[in-house]
Design brief:
Elements (H helix, E strand, L loop, with lengths): L1 H21 L1 H16 L3 H32 L7 E4 L1 H15 L5 E7 L3 E4 L1 H18 L5 E10 L2 E7 L34 H11 L3 E6 L5 E8 L4
Parallel strand pairs: 2-4
Antiparallel strand pairs: 1-3, 4-5, 5-7, 6-7
Helix pairs in contact: 2-3, 3-6, 4-5, 5-6
Length: 234
């Protein structure tokens, strides 16, 4: 209990420091956009107002992800579990992701989809997988497709593989990308997008299902993230 309390306190301190740092950038851009909107009319004002809307949405998303992460980390909230056919949400995520990716000359393709059941929380599983897919869409190069596969390597394990065709990562950073607010050396600047929360949420959600999430570089380029979760044995 003492170790858990200390861990929660450490997480709280880290969150306070990181949040104060991370929220400064979108807030600063909001203020600049507001100033421009006041000074200009017509097209210039419309562009500034669109930027305000974009930054406000980013702040809202960040706050929502932080609340999710804090809730998952606290362990105080019970998570309703039920039998989930994991293929159904993965198909939906792939379809939604493909539609979104087409706007940037990318795509998402479901390569392999074995029917697998998991005892879990559908919403948390969807969030965990969707966050990884969105990250892959962001990093895969133009005119490539993010590839998703559902496999059952054994009777008691389900694997969801998400592979992009980006530049990959240095081996030393592969374990760190699931840490809170972590940015790789190639994408630490704010303009690269992302809040540094999505993969941390994915990892915690998977852990709540007694699973694991790992990343590895793929021969030929790109990154493969594997979500392993115990399957419902029938």
């Amino acid at each position: 209990m003492a170790e858990r309390i200390e861990s929660l306190m450490k997480l709280q301190r880290q969150l306070i420091g990181d949040i104060s740092h991370e929220l400064r950038s979108p807030l600063a851009r909001l203020n600049v956009a507001l100033d421009l909107a006041r000074q200009n009319r017509g097209v210039e004002a419309e562009q500034a107002l669109n930027r305000i809307e974009e930054e406000a949405r980013e702040l809202n998303d960040m706050i929502g992800e932080l609340l999710t992460l804090i809730r998952l980390a606290s362990g105080n909230e019970s998570v309703a579990m039920a039998n989930v056919d994991i293929a159904e949400p993965v198909r939906e995520i792939a379809g939604d992701g493909d539609f979104e990716a087409q706007g940037s000359n990318r795509g998402v393709k479901l390569l392999e989809c074995e029917e697998c059941s998991i005892n879990g929380n559908s919403d948390l599983l969807r969030r965990a997988i969707e966050n990884v897919v969105r990250n892959a869409i962001h990093h895969t190069i133009e005119n490539t497709e993010v590839e998703i596969s559902i496999r059952r390597p054994s009777s008691d394990t389900v694997e969801i593989l998400i592979r992009d065709y980006g530049s990959g990562l240095p081996e030393s950073e592969l374990e760190n990308i699931f840490q809170l607010f972590y940015r790789t050396s190639a994408s630490r600047e704010r303009q690269t997008g992302g809040t540094g929360l999505g993969l941390a949420i994915s990892k915690r959600a998977v852990q709540l299902h007694h699973g694991a999430v790992t990343a590895k570089n793929v021969t030929g380029g790109g990154l493969s993230i594997v979500i392993s979760i115990p399957a419902t044995v029938t």
